[in-house]
Write a structure and sequence with these properties.
heterodimer; A: about 300 residues; mainly alpha; two-stranded antiparallel ribbon; 11 helices; 4 strands; globular; B: about 240 residues; Rossmann fold; 6-stranded mixed beta sheet; 4-stranded antiparallel beta sheet; 10 helices; 10 strands; binds adenosine-5'-triphosphate; binds magnesium ion
Chain lengths: ~300, ~240
């Protein structure tokens, strides 16, 4: 099942190794952005946003249309993030906040309804064929040479920007007044409210932030992936795996876990192409067996 | 009669699920005065304060703050109108540092002249200054109580609802809290304090109200209560 020859051949040649590593990092970093939103929402609101992939999809489609109109990739990414964040806030205010604290099945049901409706709306607006944004003009540049391999500037940009966004998010949550209030409200929302803070507003903003992270991942990834209604499902499952491996609520955990999965995916496409998804579940299962709270959340290891 | 009560509570009925806890409870207090809310365990003191703070839904009855109805407002709106609440069980944010706890409580009050700031709170609670970088969850019970009071004061309330601030504290700290309350009285803050410690109330309160089984059974000046040995014995077992 594992094609050792192919693996050795690739990693014997610097260029192939660099290419696989780069593509692993891209997959990992975009996955990290999506998963960090999911884990943030869970950590504060204690709800699992099953509709998270939908905001990834919305980000991608908003970016696609913005790019058609403006031909600016950066503006497209911004609109993708803001659009997904905006719809995230609406979704939180009018739907998911109504089932906070209720049975998880209720939350699942609300999210599933939202996914189906949004997928259909996307089909109506953008059609059901695969769409491709293509490499934006800004990045039609000669690739960098790294150890004999080629790294397209767009890839380098995506990896670095995702990391920067991740760092900003961690800063926002751990060092700002917004983050302090949101963490306090996660612990004791009533007391925060009694201190004069409009907690529902903060919850909506946090939910919007989480969705914006999914949206910007969809938008940034639009040039290297194809767009299709229902594209949110795969990334949702992978984000779940990331949060299980990294630990629910931990953003640094999401980063490491997403990188592990990204690299597994890209190496797997060479070495065990038929078992790539299987391998991700195997990693998840191992973490669940040896550290059920995830690698980065304190807890007893069984 | 035009009333000059600052806070007036009329016929409050409050339920937890299906069981009624407060029965037509009425109370009133004037600006700058301190009202002691007394009563046995389970009488309904905490429930009364929580209802005033908006944390427990009010089934019927009214709460007038400066003649404005506030009984249906959310806790954050009530707080912004100048009502500060200090819960009985402290409820500090355990994973936040002492200073972060205080900053979450920080809020301006447009109605008040003297503002309390971080430095003012530290002046009054030097201990909190020394502990400012420690996680609140690691503080002792008494330290958490001080933090909880200080955090609410950071919001510059005109009315302070204190739920058993002396509970579980060493006598020396109770004296500190009494001193703090006197300071607040000097800045014209109105205080409602739920207490079991009657001697503490005799030292600081202007008026007293006794709750028994969810209704007010006594409401008068603290001096009248001091003389009324029958009431003291009947409802407070003193
Ligand atoms: N969340 C709740 N759900 C149901 N019943 C409650 C709840 N909180 C309080 N009660 C009940 O309401 C009654 C009044 O409680 P409350 O806490 O107001 O009393 P208290 O006067 O503050 O007593 P203590 O001096 O012990 O603090 C009690 O019988 C209590 O069991
Ligand atoms: Mg009580």
């Amino acid at each position: 099942m594992i094609d050792v020859d192919a693996l050795l051949n690739c990693f014997g040649v610097a260029s192939c190794a660099v290419n696989q590593l780069t593509s692993g990092l891209i997959i990992g970093m975009l996955l990290f952005l999506v998963a960090s939103g999911l884990t943030l929402i869970f950590g504060v609101l204690n709800v699992i946003n099953f509709a998270h992939g939908t905001f990834y999809m919305l980000g991608a489609y908003f970016a696609f249309s913005t790019y058609l109109l403006t031909e600016s990739y950066l503006l497209s990414a911004l609109i993708g993030a803001l659009g997904a964040g905006f719809f995230g806030i609406l979704f939180e205010r009018f739907l998911i906040s109504k089932v906070y604290g209720q049975d998880i099945l209720m939350q699942l049901l609300v999210c599933y309804a939202f996914i189906l409706i949004t997928d259909d709306l996307v089909k109506i607006i953008w059609g059901s064929e695969y769409l491709s944004m293509g490499v934006p003009d800004e990045f039609r540049l000669p690739p960098f040479r790294v150890f004999g391999g080629f790294v397209p500037p767009l890839y380098a940009f995506l990896i670095i920007l995702s990391l920067v966004i991740g760092v900003i998010t961690i800063f926002l949550i751990s060092k700002t007044r917004f983050g302090s209030i949101v963490r306090a409200a996660a612990e004791n929302a009533k007391m925060v409210s009694a201190l004069g803070i409009r907690v529902p507003l903060y919850f909506a903003l946090l939910f919007g932030l989480g969705c914006a992270l999914a949206g910007i991942a969809g938008a940034l990834g639009a040039p290297v992936r194809s767009l299709t209604p229902g594209m949110g499902f795969g990334i949702l499952i992978e984000s779940f795996i990331v949060t299980v491996i990294g630990g629910m609520g931990s953003i640094p955990g999401a980063l490491i876990a997403a990188l592990i999965l990204g690299i597994t995916r890209s190496i797997g496409s060479v070495g065990f192409p038929l078992f790539v998804d299987g391998m991700m579940f195997v990693i998840m299962a191992l973490v669940l067996i040896f550290k059920p709270t995830g690698l980065f959340v304190k807890g007893s290891s069984k | 009669m035009s009333e000059n009560y600052y806070l007036k509570v009329n016929n409050l009925n409050v339920f937890y699920d299906n069981s009624q806890i407060l029965f037509d409870l009425s109370l009133s207090t004037k600006k700058g005065k301190t009202l002691a809310l007394l009563g046995r365990n389970g009488a309904g003191k905490s429930t009364t304060l929580k209802s005033l703070a908006g944390l427990t839904p009010i089934k019927s009855g009214s709460v007038l703050l400066d003649n404005q109805n506030i009984e249906n407002l959310k806790p954050y709106n009530i707080s912004r109108l100048g009502i500060g609440y200090v819960p009985e069980d402290r409820q500090v944010f355990k994973l936040h540092s002492v200073e972060e706890n205080l900053l979450i409580g920080a809020k301006k009050n447009l109605k008040r002249e003297e503002e309390i700031h971080l430095s003012g709170v530290y002046d009054f609670f030097p201990l909190l200054y020394d502990l400012r970088n420690r996680n609140a969850g690691l503080l002792s019970g008494g330290e958490q109580q001080m933090l909880s009071i200080a955090r609410t004061l950071m919001g510059n309330p005109d009315i302070l609802l204190l739920d058993e601030p002396s509970e579980g504290l060493a006598p020396i700290i109770v004296q500190d809290i009494a001193k703090l309350i006197k300071n607040l009285q000097n800045t014209n803050v109105t205080i409602i304090i739920a207490e079991q410690n009657i001697r503490f109330c005799f030292a600081i309160a202007d008026h007293a109200a006794i709750i028994d089984k969810g209704s007010i059974v006594f409401e008068n000046s603290i001096d009248e209560l001091r003389k009324d040995t029958k009431t003291l014995k009947k409802y407070l077992a003193v």
